[in-house]
From TrEMBL:
The chain crosses the membrane at residues 88-107. This is Regulator of nucleoside diphosphate kinase. InterPro entries: GreA/GreB_C_sf, Tscrpt_elong_fac_GreA/B_C, Tscrpt_elong_fac_GreA/B_fam. It comes from the Bacteria.
Length: 134
């Protein structure tokens, strides 16, 4: 399985590394995938982050490759998560899976119902204080 290079800030890198070390909820598949992604991750300053990189406060649209179903959500810190408002925690399984990817990426991640493949369709940044697309 080819591992695409994550492009993330130090904040997101540390969050993922900490989650990898402390989470007993990750499957072996996901632990290995995240470990390999972090080994090759490109850590950049916020100013050097590509506009379409998935980070905290990104507005993300993904497509399940098999079912073709699309999902759009605002990726947020865990304490801001609210599914009624489509605010998904960065520590939710799909949040962990997508952090650091950019538009067009294909992401494999083991979900409760098996390994799924998602395509990152669109990424926009949300202004945290206004919660609107920047």
């Amino acid at each position: 399985m080819k591992t695409e290079q994550l492009v993330i800030t130090k904040k997101e890198y540390d969050l993922l590394l900490n989650h990898l070390k402390l989470s007993s909820r990750l499957s072996d598949f996901n632990k290995n995938k995240l470990h390999n992604e972090l080994k090759t991750a490109k850590v950049v300053s916020k100013q050097d982050l590509p506009e379409d990189a998935i980070v905290i406060d990104a507005l993300v649209t993904i497509r399940d490759v098999e079912s073709k179903q699309e999902f759009t959500f605002h990726l947020v810190a865990p304490e801001q998560a609210n599914m009624k408002l489509n605010k998904l925690s960065v520590l939710a399984p799909i949040g962990i899976a997508l952090l650091g990817y950019t538009s067009g990426a294909l992401v494999d991640w083991e979900m409760p119902n098996g390994v799924k493949k998602f395509e990152v369709v669109k990424v926009g940044q949300v202004a945290p204080e206004k919660n609107e697309v920047a």
